[in-house]
UniProtKB/TrEMBL annotation:
Pfam families: FAD_binding_3 (PF01494). Its EC number is 1.-.-.-. One of its GO terms (molecular function) is FAD binding. It comes from Lacipirellula limnantheis. The lineage of its organism: Bacteria, Pseudomonadati, Planctomycetota, Planctomycetia, Pirellulales. This is Oxidoreductase. Residues 18-324 form the FAD-binding domain. Gene3D superfamilies: FAD/NAD(P)-binding domain. Residues 422-444 are annotated as: Disordered. Keywords: Oxidoreductase. It comes from the Bacteria. Residues 427-444 have a biased composition (Acidic residues).
Length: 444
């Protein structure tokens, strides 16, 4: 895809804005674009310069409707990105489920989505903000958020000039949005982050060309594969141009302590997953393998007078169900609605800016519970659906991100006791046990 960012220079900055968004990843660019579309002056600043590598390359289909609001559906359809039509699971014994196709539950175009190359996708999102009137700037460091009492009133920025000198400037705003990802400028400053001790994960990942890809269902699917010892799992995300993103995820200590280089760790785990090793046969590595710490965390307080957190600054669940980018964009969409309301009422209070947060926390918690189910060892998807066929639609809703409704949640009344029963029936390290998900075709 070609890009032509209309980027502002420091000299063109206004002294004040209705809204300043720190961080131009998916959540920040979404927030900035939608607030600007409502007619407000918005400044979007990003510390890094695009393109940049980032995890989070598989989308959930229900993000379609946020893309529609952003006005970028046509760009995505013309992008050439690999179309994601479903998911597939491979258990520790190498038993492959049938692909779980999203269109089974809802045969419309919004039931399918894309596997995205993040350098291109993030650039497109940044460009979209600029095209909608946002003052968008890269290579700008936020030194601090300015407060008057308990109210955020602006930011102090640092710019690097062409001659290598640095310049600082204070810029005022009615609303400051923290979309700085795991850097989480505001939540770190205010001590708001709460890490989930049960989901301290690390990932080692990279891209490979020429790895196996299956397109028999009109697109590709995200594949989740367990290693034979069940101490880690792989994501396998076919992208455009014969590239596949492959990453391995496990507990932080298991993955990183005394294991060697990222490459050594990665290929040690490949040897424990014949299903991945077979798919990678003949493939060539196209970039450096890097480590990302995927700690699961929330923030105890996510809005205040004049400020709000979105995306990974708000929280992060886990990479297993590809919910990260979906919830980043969705948080940006919902936060923007409250920011617009607050600016229209000239009341950027915590009450107005944070109205979206209780519902968002409740809905994302359903996916969080599904993540815990995945790691429990008792979530045998096919067996569960066969035993509780009336939950098939709700399980599909969870996998596509359709959680912002009143239907989702009932599944756990049956899933929680089912998982306990499965854990008791199946010794976790029994290599001769019946493979998980052996009957996933029943989902169809």
């Amino acid at each position: 895809m070609s890009h032509c960012t209309i980027e502002k220079s420091p000299k063109e900055l206004q002294e004040s804005y209705d809204c300043i968004v720190m961080g131009a990843g998916p959540s920040g660019s979404t927030t900035a674009t939608l607030v600007a579309k409502a007619g407000f002056n918005v400044l979007l600043v990003e510390r890094e310069r695009f393109p940049r590598r980032h995890v989070g390359e598989s989308l959930m289909p229900d993000i379609y409707f946020t893309f529609e609001k952003l006005g970028i559906l046509d760009k995505l359809k013309q992008s050439g990105y690999a179309k994601k039509v479903g998911v597939q699971f491979v258990n520790h014994a190498g038993r492959e489920s049938a692909p779980f196709l999203f269109r089974w539950n809802d045969p419309n175009e919004w039931s399918e989505t894309w596997h995205i190359p993040r350098p291109e996708f993030d650039q497109m999102m940044f460009d979209t903000a600029a095209e909608n009137g946002v003052d968008a700037m890269q290579g700008v460091r936020v030194l601090e958020v300015l407060f008057e009492g308990e109210r955020a009133v602006g930011v102090k920025l640092q710019f690097n000039s062409d001659d290598g000198a640095t310049e600082t400037r204070e810029v005022r705003a009615k609303v400051v949005v923290d979309a700085t990802g795991q850097s989480a400028i505001l939540s770190n400053k205010l001590g708001l982050r709460r890490v989930n001790p049960d989901l301290k994960k690390a990932a080692v990942w990279g891209h490979f060309k020429g790895a196996k890809r299956d397109t028999e269902h009109g697109g590709v699917y995200t594949i989740v594969l367990h290693t034979n010892q069940r101490k880690s799992w792989f994501w396998y995300i076919p992208q455009a141009d014969d590239v596949v993103s492959i990453g391995v995820v496990g507990d932080n200590d298991y993955m990183l302590k005394g294991r060697g280089t990222p490459s050594e760790i990665f290929f040690q785990e490949v040897d424990k997953c014949p299903a991945v090793k077979g798919r990678m046969e003949g493939a060539t590595q196209v970039d450096e393998l890097i480590v990302t710490k995927e700690f699961s965390y929330l923030t105890d307080r996510s809005a205040g007078d004049g400020w709000v957190l979105v995306g990974d600054a708000w929280g992060f669940i886990d990479p297993v169900y590809s919910s990260g980018v979906f919830f980043a964009l969705k948080s940006g969409e919902l936060a923007s609605e409250c920011i617009i309301d607050a600016l229209q009422a000239n009341d950027p209070s915590e009450e107005r800016l944070g109205k979206w947060l209780p519902g968002f926390k409740e809905k994302t918690n359903w996916v969080r519970k599904l993540v815990h189910a995945f790691y429990s060892g008792g979530f045998r998807v096919g067996k569960f659906v066969k035993e509780f066929p009336h939950h098939r639609g709700e399980l599909t809703d969870l996998l596509v991100g359709r959680v912002f409704n009143d239907r989702v949640g009932g599944i756990f009344k049956d899933l929680d006791p089912f998982m306990e029963r499965m854990k008791n029936e199946l010794p976790p390290e029994d290599p001769n046990a019946e493979p998980e998900d052996a009957d996933v075709p029943a989902l169809a």
